[in-house]
């Protein structure tokens, strides 16, 4: 058994924290180790001395004064709590009212001064993608023609899906034209012109 | 009123104090204030600081009584508040821990009646007693706190650990270290006895 372990056990034994099994091993070690016996004796002396010196005598008047001060502080604290409570409640109500008023003011402000944008109705929602494709096509007329044809076909498909072709004169319907974007109208216009030109040329031919 | 309070258990008094009963709390305080004061005094060595810190600990306990879940005893809980306050107080260096101020209401009791009637023996004992006080005062704070609670207050390692907020094993090691330091510094005086 190492003496360092024994020194720790000696401290635990003084505090009554050493198990019976360890006490037996400790005793066996102490019987054959004078150094640990000497250390054990020193710790016992320190313990006895420490217990005898720490006896502070306090006069009864000290405790009377202490208790009186404590009672006074406790009563003040209780009084403080009583006064605080309604105040805290009032502040809570004031805070809640202020928050509600602010909410109403902000709500009215937005309601009156910020018109909600009316969502546009698109028959086709390709505007962004069309612009992107146009940029990619660049100045290639062949690709442009092809693309226009694809767009027209898709318009046709959409109309077909909606059953517009079945109703006579669907082109005259204001809903069709009003819901088309400028870009789409221009595209259709250019295509009509192209067709007219082709027809004129064929007549001339 | 006071008599009826004195008959009640700590738990009952805690319940009453939680409802704002000052008398109930004062009775709880009366039951533990002396031990707390002595422990704080052993750490601060200043009666005014010990008195103020004991009052502060009890007031803090009163204010935060609603948060006390009663998982430990009221004594342990207040003790813990008091020791934490004291350790913080000493760490902040608000007072030189080794300075000792006593007034007429406090005085160190003479050491136990000396078994040896000889003047030489008495003188040696007084010298050892003085040196031991100095040695305990100069222990590092964590060791000193453990030593005060276990030796001066007679707490078990488990009780001291609860108060200090550490493990029993830590208390055990601190006690061992504290004793090693004390033994080293007091060795010449111990041999002379």
List keywords for this structure.
heterodimer; A: 205 residues; mainly alpha; 8 helices; B: 193 residues; Rna Polymerase Sigma Factor, Chain: A; Arc Repressor Mutant, subunit A; 2 domains; 9 helices; 70% helix; elongated
Describe the overall structure.
- The complex is a heterodimer of chains A (205) and B (193).
- Helix content of chain A is 78%, strand content 1%.
- Chain A is mainly α and 205 residues long.
- Among the domains of chain A are: 51 residues, no CATH class; 78 residues, no CATH class.
- In chain A, helix 1 packs across helix 2, helix 1 packs parallel to helix 3 and helix 2 crosses helix 3.
- The model of chain A has no long low-confidence stretch (mean pLDDT 77).
- With 193 residues, chain B is mostly helical.
- Chain B folds into two domains: 90 residues, Rna Polymerase Sigma Factor, Chain: A (Orthogonal Bundle), CATH 1.10.1740; 73 residues, Orthogonal Bundle (Arc Repressor Mutant, subunit A), CATH 1.10.10.
- In chain B, 70% of the residues lie in helices and 2% in strands.
- Chain B contains nine helices and one strand; from the N terminus they run αααααβαααα.
- In chain B, helix 5 crosses helix 8, helix 6 packs antiparallel against helix 9 and helix 8 crosses helix 9.
- About 10% of the residues of chain B have low confidence.
